[in-house]
Q: What sequence folds into this?
């Protein structure tokens, strides 16, 4: 790819980031760093949803090279090559529409990369000046490393022709980026306005264990869901709750869950048998029972604590909607809008589980600080 095209792509990423950066800079909010963090959370959530749309519309190879499109910075400049590819194969993978979907996804990703670099730069400069904990650069540095790794997997997604394990890891990294940004936002909220001591520490510790377990099972279910999507196994079971008329249909776990292989192929290069797709879908569907059990218990315990009740209600609502969209995807023969909603629901579960985790962690810290201060105050008196 020519240097001029790379420069144009870099400028596009800066242009995408300018609007949110300008809005934060011109806002009346005194704590602009905190505001920028939550803007980054919002945009990362949007990117994950649009990434799901890109995957579900088969637009991942809309531009078959990376980072540009046929070596150009945008599909306008590559129109001749795209038109020729579309004429040869009208349904794709390369069409004008799919090329634009893929490049818009890349532009958004580059814009978020610029915003994360702005967060890192601001935190380093302010930390050196003030040593204020809100600007401690550890998490922003981790975010920068994370987004670089995510960019590498984005490139491999294209160059390795949508290999399922690469696409699934790309999805998980996107969710991890959202979680890390949300955790940083939680830190900024806590430092700006620490919560008052509240609740029983024993109950909080039990909730924290459940919250960590919830994060683990959500991650596992997203990985399984990504594996379903990247292997095009969504309709391998076209009824619910049975699968092909059976509770346990014939399944090929060996080929279905062999990680390193081409899309639609076994490790030996043969076409993937349908029973392998059934296995992929069946495992994702049934692991949802584990997710509901763990999150249901977490919601029940957190709901009983006044300072966690709001988070618990939101988590319960999103979990319920997520179950509905998952079932509707099967019943309604994979409508695009509902499939995108299902992807968005997974991102919301990650965001809410992360928020609940940091809320419980910081509440325990506040309670411990109060407990430690009480004997010291008594000694003084």
A:
């Amino acid at each position: 790819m020519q240097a001029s095209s790379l420069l144009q792509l870099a400028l596009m990423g800066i242009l995408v980031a300018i609007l949110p950066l300008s809005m934060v800079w011109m806002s009346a909010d005194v704590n602009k760093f905190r505001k920028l963090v939550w803007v980054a959370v919002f945009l990362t959530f949007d990117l994950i949803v649009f990434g799901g749309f890109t995957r579900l519309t088969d637009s991942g190879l809309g531009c078959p090279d990376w980072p540009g499109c046929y070596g150009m910075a945008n599909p306008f400049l590559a129109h001749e090559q795209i038109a020729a590819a579309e004429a040869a194969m009208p349904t794709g993978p390369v069409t004008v529409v799919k090329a634009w979907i893929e490049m818009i996804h890349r532009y958004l990703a580059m814009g978020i990369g610029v915003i994360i670099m702005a967060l890192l730069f601001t935190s380093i400069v302010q930390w050196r000046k003030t040593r204020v904990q809100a600007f401690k650069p550890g998490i922003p540095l981790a975010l920068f490393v994370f987004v670089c790794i995510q960019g590498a997997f984005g490139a491999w997604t294209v160059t390795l022709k949508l290999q399922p394990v690469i696409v699934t890891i790309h999805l998980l990294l996107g969710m991890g980026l959202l979680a890390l940004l949300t955790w940083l936002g939680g830190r900024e909220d806590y430092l700006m306005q620490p919560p008052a001591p509240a609740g029983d520490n024993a109950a909080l510790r039990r909730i924290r264990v459940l919250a960590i377990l919830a994060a683990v099972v959500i991650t596992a279910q997203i990985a399984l869901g990504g594996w379903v999507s990247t292997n095009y196994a969504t309709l391998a079971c076209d009824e619910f709750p049975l699968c092909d008329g059976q509770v346990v249909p014939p399944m090929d776990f060996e080929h279905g869950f062999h990680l390193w292989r081409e899309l639609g192929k076994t490790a030996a290069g043969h076409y993937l048998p349908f029973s392998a797709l059934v296995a992929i879908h069946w495992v994702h569907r049934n692991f949802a029972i584990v997710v509901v059990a763990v999150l249901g218990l977490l919601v029940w315990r957190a709901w009983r604590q006044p300072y966690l009740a709001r988070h618990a209600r939101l988590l319960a609502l999103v979990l319920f909607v997520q179950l509905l969209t998952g079932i509707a995807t099967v019943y309604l023969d994979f409508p695009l809008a509902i499939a995108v909603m299902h992807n968005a629901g997974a991102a919301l579960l990650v965001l809410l589980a992360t928020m609940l985790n940091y809320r419980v962690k910081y509440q325990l810290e506040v309670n411990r600080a109060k407990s430690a201060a009480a004997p010291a105050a008594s000694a003084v008196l």
About this structure: The chain has two domains: 1-193, 200-373. Residues 1-193 form one domain. Residues 113 and 147 are 7 Å apart (CA to CA). The chain has a mean pLDDT of 92.
